[in-house]
Every structure is written in C-alpha cells, then in structure tokens.
Input
Amino acid sequence: MKTEKRKKKKSSRRQSGILMPISSIPTKYGIGGFSREAYAFVDFLEAAGQKLWQILPLGPTGYGDSPYQSFSTFAGNPYYIDLEELIRAGYLTEKECESPDYGSDPACVDYEKIWLTRFTLLRKAYKRAVKAGFLQQADYLDFVRENEAWLPDYGLYMAVKAHFGYVCWVEWDEDIRLRKPKALQEYREKLAEEIGFYQFQQYFFTLQWKALKAYANEKGIRIVWDIPIYVAFDSADTWANPELFQLDEQNLPLGVAGCPPDAFCATGQLWGNPLYRWEYHRETGYAWWIRRIAHCYQLYDVVRIDHFRGFEAYWFVPYGDETAEFGHWVKGPGYELFRALKEALGDRAVIAEDLGFLTREVEALVKKTGYPGMKVLQFAFDGSADNGYLPHNYPANCIVYTGTHDNETTLGWYRGLKAPQRRHVKSYLGVRTVREAEIPWYLIRMAMASVADTAVIPMQDYLGLDNSARMNTPSTLGGNWAWRMLPGQATQELAERIRELSVTYGRTEAE
Output
C-alpha cells in the first residue's frame, strides 16, 4: 500500500489586529480598565480572528491626560485598576464604587471627574488593605523587591508631588528637587504612608494587567504596546535620573523635543520632553534603555517605538521657545543603540513608527534593524502613483493601518477630502459610486488585501464612526484621549464580518 507524502503547509506571517486603547473599553466606572469588559473584548478579538491587540501607553497620566506624557516610563496608570476586584477582595463596596459621578456621556472619558473620584476610592481600599495586613503579604513584598530599580523612586516622587500640591518637581523645595541625601531620607520617613499608597496601586495594576495579558495570550492574541521615545519632563524618570538627559546644573532642560513644521502643524510640534544625553547612554552601554525595553517585554509581546526617526536624528528646540519652528536636527545614537538592545535581549518583536518626512539615513536605519515600518492609508492619496503609502508600493515587511491614534477616523477623513481627492480614492478602489458610510470598509479591505504582513485597524473604523470618535489631534490640548466604545457595539455580527475579511486575505485560519 503506497503512502502519499503530504506537503507541509507553509506557515503564513500574515496577520491582523485591532487598535483599541484600554481607556476606551466600556465600563460603568467612567474609563476602561482591566475589567470583565476587557476580557470580553479579548473574546471579541478571538471571534474576529485577530492575532494582535494594539493599545496605547499605559503609564500614569497628568495634565492634558496624554499617555505619551506619563509620570513614569515604568509605572502603570491606576485608573485602569479593576474596582470590582477590589470589591471582591473586601477593600471596597459596590455602593462606594457606583456612587461617584464619573460623567454623563458614556462615549467620552471625563478625566476631571475620574481624577476627583478614583484616588478617593483607591485610598479607601489602601487603608483597609493595610489594616488587613496586606503590606506584609509575601507576594506584595516580592513585587516591591522585584521592582526596586524604579518603584521606590516612583513612589517617593508621587508622594512628594502630592505633598507640594501636584506641581512639577522643578517647583519643589530645592533640597528635594535636587535630591540631596538628607532631604531624600526625611521625605521617605515623613511620607512613608503615601509612598506605600502608590506602591499599592502599582501592585494591583501589574497583577491585573498580567492576568489580562495571559488570557489574551492563551487565545493566541499578542499585545502590541506603544512606547514613547521620550519621557515626560515632569516624571519620576527625569527627577530621579537627571544624568540621562540634557539638563543644566539646576536640572532645567537645555533643549526640548518636538518635530519641525509638517502637515499636522505649520509651526511644528512642541512636545517639551527632555532630550537624552546620548553620550552618557553610550558610555554606560545603554544600560537604562536595556532596562526600559526589558521591562516592556515583561508586560507586552510586541513593542511599537514611537517617533523612530528620532534615533537617527532628533529635533532640538531651545528651552523656552513657544513653538518648534526654530529647532535644529542633531544626530542620535543610530544603529548602535539597537545593536546593544539585540545583544542584551535577543531578537524581539518591534515595530518602527517611521511616519513623517524620512531622510535616506532614517530609511537606512529602519532597514538595518530589520524592523517593519508603518504605512497609513490616509497618507496615500496625494495624487502620486509613487506615494509610498499606496498599497502597490508596499514591501511585505510592514504594518498597514487605515489610520493611527493621531489621525482622523477614516469616515471623518473622507468627509474632509476635496472632490479631486475623493475621485482619486474611488478610482484607486475601483468604484464609481460608494455610500459614504461604507468608505471605512473599503479602506479596511484594501489594507487587509495588501501584501503587508500585518494589518492593524482602529476600532473606530470597524464601527464606522466619524471624527467625534477621534482619539487625538496633535499639537492640541483638551478634548483628546477621551473616546469610549459604547456597550454592545462590539457585536457578534461585527466579529464575523471581520473574521470573513481576515480569512479571505489569509490573515487568519478558516474555522
């Protein structure tokens, strides 16, 4: 009896995912978190045949609520702690959690109300936990010990910030602002309870996040996390490690980060982050960067590095300038940093955010790292067939998006196009007439059908939402980062439609 040799099925690198911030998960507590609704969203991703869940940075946010301006590059946002788990632990009651005013619009995060209510609840939980002996529990003590490289500084920084009325650390008393040893010891003793409160938050953030990530991984879904290239000036990182940054003897910036004038902003984008003292990082073998990225891979599966071009050259804006117009380019560490990371951590999954004006040097750096770059369909229709964002120009090693968190929704974008651009879009799509409401699905299909190994679609586009659901408008303050999905919008029918597309274009397996 002859035995037929079967050819092994070649595994495909093609995959797809959804961009959905944690803050946008629908819950009854005003902002998304690591709650049962987040687990339900993982189930939705599985039903839709998705392999990736891309989120935004999870760090604790301050003024402006931007996840890209966090109080710590290592800490997590306490807003995302699941209150219902604290109820089950006996640290809070249902009435306490349901009574605050979290805002009247379920499609929008009211950050002011969250700020005014969430920490009150968490303080109650902390005091009850302390009475119950929580601080002596072995798993909590292990957590503190395992994170001693950053947790004590973060706890002290947040406690001192609260002590001084939450002003930026440059406005603190000079002795603690400059971290004089006597002052550090005095504040550690005086604010010991407050320091414990912030460490308590980080324990529950980490515990709950790791449980949610494990649930996603068990279902074959990897988490893509967005790491900002820079840290905030008003952060534990800058205060505790001034040697890492271009600061003067008073620890004030010599220059700050931004980007030159572009399509987003005629005067450039002034971010205000401190710039790295790259010569110091080079002398230390990039130890801080290795520690930072290693920490990321304890919590996430894929790291998308924001503003990747800043590693080849960064935009130096003199400190005190009101716009980014008069900055200048300065050479960054280039491939040397990524060589050090690969030697220390091995080959890890990385996405290079290489959007904007790219020089040959930046393109060469991305190519040398081997990391996939990004393609955004909303940037594709300028009339040129050579436009690198048009799918027929893609390499396979790239990630295609309809839009990112910084873009309009696809429906909002299309509505804002002038007639010639609309005709160009329809011509490229191969349609003469199309209902406006269906445009997001045509662009989604284009992304899925492309040769790009990975396609990631914002949840707003799958829901066909207009610009009222836009996540962020660069160079603006207020009204950003607020969109929330409504309960019931992630339907089984929608999951089936997404899965059908994913199967059709080889991005998931047929059932």
Remarks:
- The longest strand covers residues 222-227.
